[in-house]
Amino acid sequence: MENFLNKIKKDVKKGFEEGLAAVMQGANIVSGKMNELSEEGKRQYQIFNLHVKIKDQMNELGEIVYAAFKKGKNLDEDKKVKSAFAKIEKLEWQLSKITNAAKIKSIVKKKAAKKTGKKSARKKPAKRKR
Question: Whole-structure pTM over 0.85, yes or no?
Answer without folding.
Answer: no
